[in-house]
Amino acid sequence: MTAEIETASRPHTGYRHEAFLYRGDDDFLAGTVPFVRDGVAAGQPVMVAVIAARGDRLREALGSDAEQVHFVDMSELGRNPARIIPAWRAFVDGHQASGQPVRGIGEPIWAGRRAAEIVECQLHEALLNMALDPDTPLWLRCPYDVDALDGLVRTEAERSHPVLVENRAYIGSTVYGGAHHAAQAFDRDLPEPAGPTDDTVFDNISLGFVRDIVRAHARVAQLTLERTEALALAVHELATNSVQHGGGVGRLRVWHQTDALVCQVGDHGRVVDPLVGRRTPGLSQERGRGVWLANQLCDLVQFRSSEKGTTVRVSTWL
What we know:
The protein is an alpha/beta fold. It has 10 helices and 13 strands. It has 2 domains: about 180 residues, Rossmann fold; about 130 residues, Heat Shock Protein 90 (2-Layer Sandwich). The protein starts with a strand and ends with a strand.
């Protein structure tokens, strides 16, 4: 079904998650400027999370209306895509008391992102369909530059968005997968490392050696002391989770890639909530804090769980 594109300023009462498929800068502005201006005119808070260059163009096109918009550099916020959902939740929660609908533009995928980052952005987009209640008054438009991105990226966007916006028209996605698609992505195995790995089995007694192993590899990779300690803390927290919730025993694998030092913690436990680590933990919350901390400390965290067990892979870019 196709319908004329809607940017009207009438209030929206529920959650709307749509993929905006555009071609080049002019098309990007044609699909974002009216969307933002209508929100501003209606008094709706608007957050725009795109890379800096696109944000600058949108600011210029909006003129004085840009002063009413909260701009975020997605290359910083979305460096680890697992941080994006908490940012949208915080934006919505910050305006919840007023009861006013809010709008957002979020572009997690752009040309030049690493393949592993794109995979995590695609999981993020799928999880966005589960992260917010359907009654949440957020209208979220996710731009995709289809001329600059691989065609498979578009295909995946169609699976993770119920509505597509293209050529100034709305199109219902015929392949939208909803929560089932998100669950499948969370269950999917990560690719095996291409080269040799340093493997260590640990338990509660040997847990303390995990930090030493990570530090030794970080020295070889010539990471700074600050990044080394952040990585060692994150991996230790994940290993502690394995001991406490994954059957008492875990496996640490470490390997070096051309552009990254990669550490992976696996165990035989299963996590059924794919949003673990993407919700800000409460002070009294025990479970999920380790994954949350890893997401704050590391460049990329890939979390998967299925009947075969749980795997958390942490990449530090070199």
